[in-house]
Amino acid sequence: MEYMAxxxxxxxxxxxxxxxxxxxxxxxxxxxxxxxxxxxxxxQGIPKQVSISFCKQCQRYFQPPGTWIQCALESRELLALxxxxxxxxxxxVRLVDAGFVWTExxxxxxxxxxxxxxxxxxxCLSPKLAQSLGNMNxxxxxxxxxxxxxxxxxxxxxxxDIDGSTFWSHPFNSLCHPxxxxxxxxxxxxIVQDIKRAAGAGMISKKxxxxxxxxxxxxxxxxxxxxxxxTHLGHLLNPGDLVLGFDLANCNLNDExxxxxxxxxxxxxxxxxxxxxxxxxxxxxxxxxxxLARERENMDTDDERQYQDFLExxxxxxxxxxxxxxxxxxxxxxxxxxxxxxxxxxxxxxMLEDLHISQDATGEEGASMLT
Length: 371
Hints:
Oligomer: single chain
Distance between the termini: 88 Å
Radius of gyration: 26 Å
């Protein structure tokens, strides 16, 4: 009698992307990640081109409502003029960086490259997606958005990265808007030493510590109402600290995944970040960014708040600032890397020396001077 052995080592087959024909692993959408990204992106609503008036006679650009200004090609002034043309759509996202893309000198087209970011929020995953990520809880915190969405489960510290293909196969939305963040004061905080992991659980974050806290809204200090929750900020919080979070218990959540969840699986509060004294942080900030001259008198308070939020994100997250040029501010005295509150600081090793170009007595550009 003869027996035939069949190999059990089978590699998955490949299919062709229905858009571009590139071989890919099978997925529910049958589309490659590059094509998925090209369909929908966070820049939706931002115009891809606008018109700027230029006078050939006086070599000036028109700045509404009735001013003609002279700007050199690829200058800060010209970049500021271009950005003002799309100021309203940019209010929906955070502008991280902007710069010119080189074009022929005789070209009548200016090309500007923008780097934008949407607000790092609380999301609710579908049951199927949460299970595929290692049995994560459905309510997660988005800690960063790059080419993938980086999530952390505040109940278990489990982390997951969701690429474009996975997201469009199992889409999810933000549960709250950043403007809905509320301030809480920490009443009690204890570290969870023994984290119980379920079978098939994914990777655990080593940058965070799981904590159990009792918090109270600073707007409800005249009451005895407190909230209990688990948080990934256990290494930062102590009784008396202020922390920002979302009040899900008293929030109207209109989400298909949340509506199907058991109510006891939805936390009352999800804490996002520790709150520090912003005035003190600004005063002790010994670094700066290269930026366009801003009109302070016409600046919206919400624009200034978002800009300060961005500076604090740079201080708190190494991954965000690794591609940003940060310059030492010589006007601020050098201090230690952390202040009295323990607010994160950028180390001197990560800062660049600022470069100033001075002019000599003849009015020509002279030697450069490092400060």
